[in-house]
């Protein structure tokens, strides 16, 4: 499969001399490859990679020197002019001669995935991240629902966002935003025109999934001897025992069930934001038919991602099974060319080139 390189030492007498003084050694080294075209291609790729690496390093070094020089000159001009309250130097430095790798900056999110927990928020974020106009925040920031983070201010929140180019949007995901009462007002104070994505699934299934995760986390956090002593702990009780009261009524105070009461929390958000700024995504259909849901999201985001639509080409993924089934215009998976793979917790999402 791979090219084989071989080396042969030949005596000088076995070679026809090319001139009177062609060589001063007794042997001649002959090097060859079994597949010269493949070897030439491999060498070309290595040289191209090396060239691009040095080009990026050189470009970054030149830009850093130019930025430092410009900022120093700006500071000197402020000092020489004796301005009593000099403006903060927080604007990006623009260089007319800089063509490659335009400067990025951290921006506050223009779209939030506000929930719901255990409905596929992570899968939705990763699917959206495949779009070239979308950047995602790493992890759940929990800025609006935790007082200790919110008191740090929007500048702290902005620094938690990824770098993005002009024309890209930033999306942040924290499922607890949906059920925290003070979050809608805090979000509106930051951006009254922000886009909100809410992914939901069948509420009972969601509650059981939530219960399973809570029980799993409790099992890993509790020592075995403690488990045997606490027979009345929630860890030892079934979902039915926690969801139903002794008189047979539903225990609405049980947190997995309280979160599944979508109408209670949605009403709070719609009191603050207009309906056209909130898109409800069907988490069950996102698994069975992701293309239709992603096209709805593209239409909802609208001008924020004005590039040609690519999310509609996202392929269906299979949870817990590393098999991708193409749902493009071509029916058979063998006929659908793949150009990019994404793997997360046993699931694969793929973009087709159709």
UniProtKB/TrEMBL annotation:
A molecular-function term among this protein's GO annotations: [heparan sulfate]-glucosamine 3-sulfotransferase activity
Superkingdom per UniProt: Eukaryota
Binding site for 3'-phosphoadenylyl sulfate: 118-122, 201, 209
Keywords, sorted A to Z: Glycoprotein, Transferase
Name recorded for this polypeptide: Sulfotransferase domain-containing protein
InterPro entries referenced in this protein's UniProt entry, alphabetically: NST/OST, P-loop_NTPase, Sulfotransferase_dom
Residue ranges of domain Sulfotransferase in the record: 109-306
Active site: 118 (for sulfotransferase activity)
Pfam families tied to this protein: Sulfotransfer_1 (PF00685)
């Amino acid at each position: 499969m791979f090219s084989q390189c071989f080396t042969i030492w030949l005596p000088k007498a076995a070679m026809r001399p090319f001139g009177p003084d062609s060589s001063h050694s007794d042997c001649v080294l002959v090097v060859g490859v079994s597949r010269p075209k493949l070897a030439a291609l491999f060498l070309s790729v290595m040289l191209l990679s090396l060239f691009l690496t040095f080009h990026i390093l050189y470009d970054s070094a030149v830009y850093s020197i130019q930025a430092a020089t410009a900022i120093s000159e700006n500071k000197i001009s402020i000092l020489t002019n004796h301005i009593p309250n000099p403006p903060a130097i927080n604007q990006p430095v623009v260089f007319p001669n800089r063509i490659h790798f335009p400067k990025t900056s951290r921006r506050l999110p223009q779209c939030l995935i506000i929930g719901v927990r255990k409905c596929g928020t992570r899968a939705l974020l990763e699917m959206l991240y495949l779009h070239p106009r979308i950047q995602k925040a790493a992890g759940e920031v929990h800025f609006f629902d935790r007082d200790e983070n919110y008191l740090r201010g929007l500048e702290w929140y902005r620094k938690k966002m990824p770098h993005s180019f002009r024309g890209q949007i930033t999306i942040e995901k924290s499922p607890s935003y949906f059920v925290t009462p003070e979050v809608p007002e805090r979000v509106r104070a930051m951006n009254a025109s922000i886009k909100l994505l809410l992914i939901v699934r069948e509420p009972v299934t969601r509650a059981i999934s939530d219960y399973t995760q809570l029980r799993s986390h409790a099992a890993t956090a509790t020592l075995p001897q403690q488990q045997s002593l606490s027979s009345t702990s929630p860890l030892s009780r079934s979902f039915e025992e926690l969801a139903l009261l002794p008189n047979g009524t539903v225990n609405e105070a049980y947190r997995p069930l309280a979160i599944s009461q979508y109408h209670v929390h949605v009403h709070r958000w719609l009191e603050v934001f207009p309906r056209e700024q909130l898109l409800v995504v069907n988490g069950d259909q996102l698994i069975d038919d992701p293309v239709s849901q992603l096209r709805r999201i593209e239409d909802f985001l609208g001008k924020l991602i004005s590039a040609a639509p690519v999310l509609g080409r996202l392929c269906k993924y299979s949870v817990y099974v590393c098999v991708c089934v193409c749902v493009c215009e071509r029916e058979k998976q063998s006929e659908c060319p793949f150009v990019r793979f994404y793997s997360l917790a046993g699931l694969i999402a793929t973009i087709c080139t159709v």
